[in-house]
Amino acid sequence: MTVPGRRSSTFTRLLRHGFTDPSAAERLLDSDQLLPVRSDPVLLEALGATADPDLALLGLVRLLEAQPGATARRELLDTLIAAKPLRDRLLGVLGASAALGDHLARHPRDWEALVTYEPRDLHPGVEEFERGLSEADDPVSLRIAYRRCLLSIAARDVCGTTDVAETAAELADLATATLRAALALARTAAPEDAALCRLAVVAMGKCGGHELNYVSDVDVIFVGEAVEGADEDKALRSATRLASHMMRVCSETTVEGSIWPVDANLRPEGRNGPLVRTLSSHLAYYQRWAKTWEFQALLKARPVAGDIELGEEYVVALEPLVWKAAERENFVADVQKMRRRVVENIPAAEIDRELKLGPGGLRDVEFAVQLLQLVHGRTDAGLRSGTTLDALRALAAGGYVGRADAVQLDEAYRFLRSMEHRIQLYRLRRTHLVPEDEADQRRIGRSLGLRVEPVAELNREWRRHAAVVRRLHEKLFYRPLLDAVAQLAPGEARLSPEAARERLVALGYNDPAAALRHLEALASGVTRKSAIQRTLLPVLLGWFADSADPDAGLLNFRKVSDALGKTPWYLRLLRDEGAAAENLARVLSAGRLAPDLLMRAPEAVALLGDGDGGGLTPRTREHLEQEILAAVRRAENAQQAVTAARGVRRRELFRTAAADIVGSYGTETQPAEADEGALVDRVGAAVSDLTAATLAGTLRAVVREGWGDTLPTRFAIIGMGRFGGHELGYGSDADVLFVHEPPEGADERAAAEAAGKVVSEMRRLLQIPSADPPLLIDADLRPEGRTGPLVRTLKSYEAYYRRWSLVWESQALLRAAPFAGDEELGRRFIALIDPLRYPAEGLGEDAVREIRRLKARMESERLPRGADPKLHTKLGPGGLSDVEWTVQLIQLQHGWAEPGLRTTRTREALAAACAAGLISAEDAAILDEAWVLATRVRNAVMLVRGRAGDTFPSDGRELAAVGRYLGYGDGHVGDMLDAYRRSARRARSVVEELFYGA
Length: 998
Known about the structure:
This protein is mainly α. It is built from 44 helices and ten strands. Helix content is about 60%, strand content about 5%. The longest helix is centred in the C-terminal third of the chain and has 32 residues, at about 675-705.
């Protein structure tokens, strides 16, 4: 008798044996069905050894209840207690699969399929499974027989009699036998169709690769031919009816459910193509139209049913095309496209639970192996296996994959596939999601032998193996390239020079011979530098291959390494395979500008880390001015001072470009910046602040050398154009006005001469040829343009603007802002021009007409000859000029009444116009999007080519690099150009309405 409040000894034993609901288990053990064996310790021990003892006990009770009588129940119980093989198999299945427990409850004598325990039953093949299905004469009986066979596969799996690879092979063999049985049913139902044609069923995907899951679509391709003397069209129609019937036999839901879907969508033209084709039709398609992924799919093609001889002819005919796929013209672009994991369609809430497609998932391993097979299998027939693990072993044996990497990848793949099997086995449902429920995770963990803390251990092991796959996924391609140029231990296999070149070409390198020379120089030797670079290069090569110009990335890395290889901090930076290394790879392969800036002072690579260099966050104008003015004070003369200022400018341009590239490309841990406007604003503000600080330092240096501490006139520099609007790009000149004012009683001529000398000397010093990029000063927006004096007094500006000013000058002054020199003089200049740029009551009709006339003339006269107007980012329809002139017209008309419009920045003024109701939110968004996109294109062109440009590059590789910066993958350059045209077209329609009044 149990004392009230105290748990029974049975309750405690059940807890100890892994039951999570001991009370329910006690009730089941007390049931009539289990009464004869209730106290038998063997039963409890066996239940406790299962993945889910509660589920196993419930399944056993249901199975006993379903037996046709007491004799049958006694037979089952006696066999269960006496025969350990049956006990382990039956309870193992019941504890791992609720679905197979349901099957046994419906078909209570099927447990007998688990009794036989002979060597030939341990590893059955297609022949044994065909015998198991031989009595099925309709779809329902086929399903029952299929699950009976599946029962035995699952039993061997959960008991550890077979490993995951053997289980997957058995599942593929069972699928083969099932397809043959289904086709036989179809033939029996339509003998007249069977008589007219030869029909081959070629397995693809995991079935073809002999590595099927418990529940998976079975991918197939059908090949049909007419029998001798039959009409081909009629024969193909007959073959199509047979194939369709066979698919329905397997796929349709009956009282016994379905088996699995048969998927023929890998056939030529997919769902739009005929279900059955002749061999010649297949061959013609693959020779002319097939894409790279279709050849990748053919790696697993295997005849399994129907006319096996015809299926073999199909494989033999297509095999040469498969192994020539790597020679295709578009192979590189296709490979780079396929290498990027397709995760966009995975819901955000599921991506962390996605076992197949998520980062570090099964697809990463399978794709990596298949790609290496395509590259090297054309010259090494030993690699031509459709089974992932067999192919991985062959790749390692041939030196195409590092042996240690192959072992780790094999272990990770086996663990992930085992998880996938256990997840699907529970309900026999097609899923690759790791369940969130703790009870499900506990069952999976226990089924994999994790018994102490199943949930925690399962998640730890899963994350560890996924991390291994993520880490090795890229290195798998690149580490053997280093072995090809390094000294290996005796007996170690290596890539041949030809194989190394093949792989580099397949990964996007245009000059594989040069790339191998760079690798040899970087990785050979016994120095610490070489050892660190050998570790890092496999990762870097992957990041380079992700760019539009891998060759340049590798060459630039060698240059940086040659320059800095002996500095300890650089080696420490390399040793960290984190943000700094990836940032460096992105920057070195994204175009010419950033690497050119870096090569002139390689120590700036320190900015790419997170240490004392300040990282990639732009520095404020105040910090920049402090640093530059301090350098000016230390310099012995003006030229030395300006050289120092230009050095700071070069370093900060590199910082800005690097941050822009990393933000646009994204990294493995940080996605690309989603707000493109923010990227543009950061670049514009950073370059404008840097230009202002450089001008301030240069002004101080020139004044100090020529006049000591005090210039004989007050002097200010006014930013204009994109400089005044804080919107400078990498290649922009600095548009400025120079203004001075002599002190009261001073010699005005001497003051004017001094101001003129300052301007001339500043322009000279900032353009002296050197390792640093020049800063060009453009003063053409001054009164009287190029014919007028470079510098004027404030009174002279006042007199000119009062008497001679034209409407275009008022428009230009909308961007005016003081940036350097005498702050009070700068403020007075702004006070002087405010009435001009924000005229009271706005512009008159004549002035508006004049602005429109000037704009129309500019569009017709200034566009370069031969340029495509629709792709010209500055002067083309919907380009920068269109947007800016429209915004500036609104400012001229309404700035006097709307304070928010009194800004030099285009986007700020556009937002203010929208807030004031002067433009609709929709139109404002269209103009803003067009302006941001056009600005980004100009920035991209400068980053890629190293020189400014207002239109897309004509060179294919440069155009692809611009696309990568803008977020378009390989092969999507056309999409990028279409998107630009679409954005510009929409903006132009708004401009026509708002600016021209159309």
